[in-house]
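Per your request, structure below.
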């Protein structure tokens, strides 16, 4: 994905999430999201943990070679994998977000952390590698994984916030390219899907319709493509 400056895509992805949550009152931050059991503040805390993970990884360069790239990384976390672990993480994130005196406290910490992660991403050596979650990735591939997750969670966040902005086009392009890679060269997304629908269905947030299954053929059985 050499045509994309990955730190710029990550900046746009994180700025998009900030635009969704900044200035929201406590009631808005307690609205539901597409992630079952998580309110807006809970999901924002989960994405905040990604930004913190980025800061740690980018400050701790790793020896190569990489063992995964921006697409194969997701295959190590299959959709519908360890349900117990996912449930424990969901419960931990909810309790952690609830520990703030008000939901807006998560927004304030996000607003401090996300730009710091972007500054670290901008300063990182694009030829270098980092280690995260048991894998070694090239820096641009690592940034692409963060962007993809941020874009999908942006779409999750706005479920009950109809006035919220959409993810930016550069960030969406990274996420769509990732999902294209997971779909494989032998399948093509249905022509009537826009990027948001493609990403939501690839992530299992929206079910495939009969028409979708007919258009996808055998590839319908691969959905969701990532969790």
């Amino acid at each position: 994905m050499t045509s994309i400056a990955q730190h710029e895509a990550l900046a746009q992805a994180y700025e998009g999430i900030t635009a969704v949550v900044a200035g929201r009152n406590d009631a808005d931050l307690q609205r539901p999201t597409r992630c079952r059991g998580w309110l807006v503040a809970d999901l924002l805390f989960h994405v905040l943990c990604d930004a913190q993970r980025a800061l740690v990884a980018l400050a701790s360069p790793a020896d190569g070679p990489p063992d995964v790239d921006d697409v194969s990384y997701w295959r190590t976390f299959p959709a519908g994998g360890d349900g117990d672990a996912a449930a424990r993480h969901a419960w931990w994130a909810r309790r952690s977000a609830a520990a703030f005196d008000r939901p807006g406290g998560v927004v304030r910490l996000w607003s401090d952390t996300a730009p710091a992660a972007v500054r670290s991403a901008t300063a990182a050596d694009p030829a270098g590698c980092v280690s995260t979650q048991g894998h070694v990735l090239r820096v641009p591939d690592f940034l692409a994984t963060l962007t993809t997750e941020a874009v999908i969670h942006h779409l999750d966040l706005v479920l009950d916030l109809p006035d919220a902005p959409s993810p930016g086009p550069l960030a969406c392009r990274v996420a769509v390219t990732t999902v294209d890679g997971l779909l494989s060269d032998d399948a093509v997304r249905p022509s009537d899907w826009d990027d948001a629908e493609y990403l939501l269905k690839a992530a299992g947030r929206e079910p495939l319709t009969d028409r979708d299954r007919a258009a996808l053929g055998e590839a319908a059985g691969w959905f969701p493509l990532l969790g």
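The first helix runs from residue 6 to 21.

Regards,
D.
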